[in-house]
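Input record (one chain):
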Amino acid sequence: MILAIARRVALSLMTLVALAVFIFLATEVMPGDALDVVLSSDEIASMPPERLAQMKRDLGLDRPAHQRLASFLAGAVQGDFGRTIISRTPVSQVVAYPMRNSLALACLVLLIALPLAVLIGVAGAVWHRRLPDHLIATATIIGYSIPEFVIGTLLVIGFAVLLPWFPATITVDTRAPVAELLRVSTLPVATIVIGSVAYLSRLLRVGMIEALGADNIERLRMTGVPQWRVVFRHALPAALVPSLTAMALYAAALVSGIVVVELVFSIPGLGQELVRAVVRREVHVVQSIALASALAVVVLNLLADLSILALDPRTRGA
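The corresponding structure, as predicted from the sequence alone:
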């Protein structure tokens, strides 16, 4: 057990280092740099080459790639990603509040989506091949197939324009309290929940159907165990084990993958900050957001693996 945990932790650390190197190399191929945004083409053309070279040296843009990679990795270990190139603001201050807002939104979505997905997935499996299952399957296919920006637009038209119940865009400040942000985020949360429930419930439904058809479940039914206990006490834990990794990856993707929803509703989160950083060629900000997203994926995937080790003894020798 301890050896299996150590092996998975070591593999996660190696994966994180490889992702950090990949993120740095990916940002290296971005066209131009921050000076191309700050200075106009006329200013660059009229500026003496010595002055332009001095500005690049002051910003650290003239250092070789391997030196910048070493600095990036050393700073990442310490949680220090330097300062922004244009305003010289610490990167940690730039991404702190947007990251808090995205995390708060993702946590609220998970608190709503996971219980709903479990109930819908269980209901679909219990009523397998009956009318409720067909209705649930149709609804989840529709919810999973429609892109989130389309769902968000339809919700805005329906509940912000035709029925002005909720705000169409989020107008709170980036540093506003989390409670204030979530209070006006009904439509973006609903947009993400619809797609999340559709995906997770279909995933769980397949596992539940397989679990309910297992021999041990049939023996429990024959011994007179109540149906609700068979479903929730025996079948559901067995169905959750193969779904944990996919659920963990989906949860991690919520932190970094709701860029479209944040842009549709003007949510002051990591999505808007990432787009702003790309436009301004703020490489350090892009690197920090990308690495934070990679860290979320690796950590949640590791937690899912450890949960599977605890729930399924057969995997401890793998």
